[in-house]
């Protein structure tokens, strides 16, 4: 039988490289891969469902799922994971020296329902007593005006939520029109000489390592999905793609641990790998539902509490049933 020919859109990650180049074959499937900038992939996947297999933002995915919109079926392959203490930026003159000082301030974000913002707000609420009802929220583009919010907060929460279409958040933070901002991407304001903008947390490595060790949560930003028409016609493809992504990730972690050669141009990387192993175990970037259950349940709780979903979704609702268990010998 001829192989199933599928298009794949995903970031150019080291942990998907062996799959996207064909070094690891996927049983019964031939992939044609596109490595566009991640914002382009996420936007076009959400707007037009252009690819058969595509990277999905976790926030956008759960928001659509809760609304009954299901253009893609996810598999538990988590391509992007980032601790989001680093995504909180403040104006130096806003009097924000601790996380609690954010209460009552004007805080911007590119999209309410983006995973980075959901994680940041949830973490600040759980760990530092953030009161989202006290904050004047401002949504807009990071560097360009006019960005639309695909998942604004549920109006039932009664939040003070303002959409700004004629200004960019970066310039508003520089001018002091907003006091703080959550952004997955580094704002240009941080690169300016004597910038009035700083990160809320300065000892990031210690803070994020401590958070991971205490909570066991490694925040998930993106995962992979199969377009529903493809999945419904070829449900077997979910498990085969999962296995392929898993093999590519495992080979990537093996290279990261290899001390015979420097596979990554990152000085002192060996020590970062050792630290990650101490906290997260030998598979410190796990795929699958079981090792990520607490992280996923926490995110779904946050999404509901923040009005991204109108109910708390269950983890099993997110993924193709074929990927929830595997053969054991």
Beta-strand portion reads: 15-25%
Q: How many DSSP E strands?
A: 11
C-alpha Rg (nearest Å): 20 Å
Q: What does the main sheet amount to?
A: 6 strands, mixed
**Topology pattern, helix = H, strand = E:** EHEHEHEEEHEEHEEHEHHHH
Beginning-to-end CA distance, first to last residue: 28 Å
Secondary structure tally, helices: 10
The stretches of 5 or more residues where confidence is low (pLDDT under 50) are: none
Helicity range: 25-40%
Q: Give the CA-based shape.
A: globular
The average pLDDT is: 96
Class by alpha and beta content: alpha/beta
Strand order of the largest sheet: 8-7-6-9-5-10
Q: What do these coordinates show?
A:
- By secondary structure, the protein is an alpha/beta fold.
- Helix content is 33%, strand content 17%.
- The chain is built from ten helices and eleven strands.
- The strands form two sheets. It has a six-stranded mixed beta sheet.
- Helix 4 (115-128) links the parallel strand 6 and strand 7 (136-139).
- The longest helix is centred in the last third of the chain and has 22 residues, at 236-257.
- The protein is globular.
- The two termini are 28 Å apart.
Task: Give the SSE map.
Blueprint: E1 4-9, H1 17-20, E2 29-34, H2 38-48, E3 53-57, H3 58-66, E4 72-81, E5 88-91, E6 106-109, H4 115-128, E7 136-139, E8 160-163, H5 169-175, E9 180-182, E10 197-199, H6 204-215, E11 220-227, H7 228-233, H8 236-257, H9 269-280, H10 293-305
Parallel strand pairs: 1-2, 1-3, 6-7, 6-9, 7-8
Antiparallel strand pairs: 3-11, 4-11, 5-9, 5-10
